[in-house]
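Action item from last meeting closed. Structure (204 res):
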């Protein structure tokens, strides 16, 4: 209930501040009772809110643990399905939380680059997301957000085709191969705008 309330407030505020346009593939916004990892690029702290108000189902995000050090912020974050991750140290707890979310056929939202970046940087991509999607056998939904977030400016958000890596055997993969999977996910994300510009899309 609290998630839905915050989502309504976010919709009102963001649609006043920006002109949001959603571009999507058929059924890409629908979670059909499947473990789904929503992966997006990350250039602004507005990004998770824009995704949350344009996606049809609730999303659980992971966020840096430092945000949870403030008791008020921790109270709010935990009630909108956000959980902490240690970006510098042991992220085992975050991995367990992620797998639990996916086991329950819910949606996990991740920014694979880990922090805000201005454009695709292969060296910034970590292998953790690759390991997660292979171990969980989750479906991946790539999302590209295109905006400078100027007041009353346009925000284009592109939802691509779902896909998975279930053909890969997790018992044979090493850390480099997991990183290669993560890089493949990011390349798909950053290529979405070109795919839609080619006219192979549906729009709302």
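Sequence:
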């Amino acid at each position: 209930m609290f998630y839905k309330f915050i989502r309504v407030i976010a919709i009102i505020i963001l649609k006043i501040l920006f002109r949001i346009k959603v571009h999507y593939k058929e059924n890409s916004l629908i979670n059909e009772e499947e473990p789904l990892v929503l992966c997006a690029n990350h250039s602004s702290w507005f990004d998770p809110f824009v995704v949350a108000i344009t996606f049809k189902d609730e999303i659980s995000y992971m966020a840096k643990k430092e945000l949870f050090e403030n008791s008020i912020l921790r109270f709010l974050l935990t009630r909108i399905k956000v959980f902490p991750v240690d970006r510098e140290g042991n992220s085992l707890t975050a991995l367990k939380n992620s797998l639990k979310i996916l086991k329950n056929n819910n949606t996990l939202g991740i920014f694979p680059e880990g922090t805000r970046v201005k454009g695709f940087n292969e060296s910034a991509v970590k292998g953790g997301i690759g390991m997660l999607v292979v171990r969980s056998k989750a479906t991946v939904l790539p999302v590209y957000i295109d905006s400078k977030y100027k007041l009353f400016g346009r925000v284009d958000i592109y939802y691509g085709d779902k896909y998975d890596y279930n053909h890969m055997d997790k018992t044979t993969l090493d850390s480099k191969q997991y990183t290669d999977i993560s890089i493949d996910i990011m390349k798909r994300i950053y290529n979405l705008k070109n795919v839609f510009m080619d006219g192979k899309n549906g729009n709302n």
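Note appended to the action item: The two ends are 26 Å apart (CA to CA).
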